[in-house]
Amino acid sequence: MCGIFGVITNQKDISIGKIAFEGIKRLEYRGYDSCGIVTQFNSKLYVKKESGRIDEIQKKINLTDFPNGSKLALAHTRWATHGAPTKNNSHPHLDCSGEIAIVHNGIIDNFIELRKELTDKGHIFKSDTDTEIIPHLIEDFIKDGLNLKDAVIRALKRCRGAYAIAICYAKSPDLIFVARKGSPLVIGIDQDRATYCASDIPAFLPLTRYCYIMDDDELAKLEAGKVSFFNINDDTRIEKELQEIEWSIDAAEKGGYEHFMLKEIYEEPMALRRTMKIHKDQIINFANELWSASNIYITAAGTSFYASLAGKYIITKFLGKYIHAVECSEFKNELAECLRENSVVIALSQSGETIDTIDAIRWAKRKKGVKVLSITNVVGSTITRYSDHVIVTRAGPEIGVAATKTYCTQVLTLALIALEIAKLRKIESFEEIKKYYEALNSTPSIIEEFLETKVDSVKKIIRCLDKEHNFFFLARGISIATAKEGGLKLKEIACRFIEGYSAAHAKHGPISLVRDGFPIIFIAPPDETYERLIGNVMEFKARGGKIISLVVESDEKITELSDITIRIPQPGDRYHNLFSPITFIPALQLLAYYTALSHGLDPDKPLNLSKTVTVH
Ligand code: G6P
Question: What is the reported pTM?
Answer without folding.
Answer: 0.89
